[in-house]
């Protein structure tokens, strides 16, 4: 049995392959890349646009795999909010030690002025270009974007509703990373309001998808037992 398990939760529009840049740096531990329905390995399953269903679906994936005495949950952007809510539920049933690492998200009730899932296709493409992370080959091809748009809109809706949902504090310690150029980077310490455990954060140069430039840094925090 592994001494530690790491569960990775992807960002909006992502899938189980979104952390291929990161997993080579996660040595000597058991890593599981989780996935929302309607994409990747789960392409034949319907998309879920209710955030509570998404949380429960993710919990089911973890419960089937959970076996180690130590667990780290990691999520970027939407995945960060999802990991937080998963931690809140797991605290009630998991007896081992748990740690939460979040990137690209300033926490509950820190939302965009406009809900991106309500934007026109043209405006959504513009926002995605600015945000980064979505290949131009998808944004420039109407056919490819038409398919991807269904996924990203569903995920943005889930993220918006999850960020706007009241949540009590968790006991799990939180470490948060954000890019210094992100829209809400100045509010990164908002996460301190949602844990009774240790909280630390770090701002690094870059925008929302700074993670691609810092795989070693992220891996370091995922592998460490400390926050």
TrEMBL record:
Transmembrane parts of this sequence: none
InterPro entries according to UniProt: AB_hydrolase_fold (IPR029058), TEII (IPR012223), Thioesterase (IPR001031)
Domain of life: Bacteria
Domain Thioesterase: 5-213
An annotated GO BP: lipid biosynthetic process
Stretches assigned to coiled coil: none
Family: Belongs to the thioesterase family.
Name of protein: Thioesterase
Organism: Chitinophaga agri
């Amino acid at each position: 049995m592994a001494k530690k398990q790491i569960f990775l939760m992807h960002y909006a529009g992502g899938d189980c392959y979104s952390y291929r840049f990161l997993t080579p740096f996660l040595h000597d531990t058991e890593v599981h890349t989780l996935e929302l329905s309607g994409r990747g390995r789960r392409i034949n399953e319907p998309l879920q646009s209710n955030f509570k269903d998404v949380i429960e679906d993710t919990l089911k994936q973890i419960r089937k795999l959970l076996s180690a005495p130590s667990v780290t949950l990691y999520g970027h952007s939407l995945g960060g909010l999802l990991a937080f809510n998963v931690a809140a539920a797991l605290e009630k049933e998991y007896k081992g030690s748990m740690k939460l690492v979040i990137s690209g998200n300033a926490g509950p009730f820190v939302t965009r002025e406009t809900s991106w899932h309500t934007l026109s296709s043209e405006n959504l493409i513009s926002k995605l270009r600015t945000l980064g992370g979505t290949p131009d080959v998808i944004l420039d091809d109407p056919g490819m974007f038409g398919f991807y748009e269904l996924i990203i809109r569903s995920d943005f809706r889930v993220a918006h509703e999850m960020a706007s949902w009241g949540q009590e504090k968790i006991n799990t310690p939180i470490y948060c990373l954000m890019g210094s150029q992100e829209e809400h980077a100045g509010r990164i310490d908002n996460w301190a309001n949602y844990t009774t455990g240790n909280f630390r954060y770090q701002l690094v140069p870059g925008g929302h998808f700074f993670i691609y430039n810092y795989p070693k840094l992220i891996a370091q925090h995922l592998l460490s037992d400390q926050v």
